[in-house]
Amino acid sequence: MSLLDKLQWRYATKKFDATKKIPADKLEELLADVRLAPSSLGLQHYRIVVVSNPEVRAKLREAAYGQSQITDASHLIVFAAETNIDETYVQKRIDEVVNTRQTSYESVEGYKQMMLGAVSRLSDEQRLIWAQKQAYIALGILTAAASELGIDNCPMEGFSAEQFDEILGLKEKGLTASVIATIGYRADDDPYSAYAKVRKEESELFIHI
């Protein structure tokens, strides 16, 4: 099946089969795909929390208005934006570039100054919005990659970020929950799986200039 076929197959799964778990190798492949998501300046302005612990997910369900996907899906994925994107954060990225590409700090000094300039021009609020936007890009990769692997998924914004941060201890890590997704396998009796997919017509959606 093509990616187009897979995306036609996927839907925002409302009812997961709680007895079906994603095999470890498939989960590892999915996370490897998401790790390669693009981000502005390559800074990867977020961390990704993979929650499988049932006790923790029960608490998170209460912080997500009781939505059953939180506890019934195989795993809950929390995209948490970095709240401290500063010179130290940029330097860590530079260290990674130098070590991975086996190059010198001098050769990437221009890149470093460009990143520092971009960061310094933003207020704390703007940096957080910037980071959250990058997290959504990673969410898009997860949605497509999961579909390619035959894994059902449901992106979700209906939750209390403040409560998620508290339950998961994110604030202490310099993070805040931005968007979440549940992944697993649909229940046979989920009525949403039979609904026709509704999207704008191509002529209404795409503007060719």
UniProtKB/TrEMBL annotation:
Coiled coil ranges: none
GO molecular function: oxidoreductase activity
Names of the cofactor(s): FMN
Superkingdom per UniProt: Bacteria
Residues of the signal peptide: none
Boundaries of every Nitroreductase domain copy: 8-185
Xref: InterPro entries: NfsB-like, Nitroreductase, Nitroreductase-like
Keyword tags: Flavoprotein, FMN, NADP, Oxidoreductase
Gene3D superfamilies: NADH Oxidase (3.40.109.10)
Pfam families registered for this protein in UniProt: Nitroreductase (PF00881)
Family to which this protein belongs: Belongs to the nitroreductase family.
Name assigned to this protein: NAD(P)H-dependent oxidoreductase
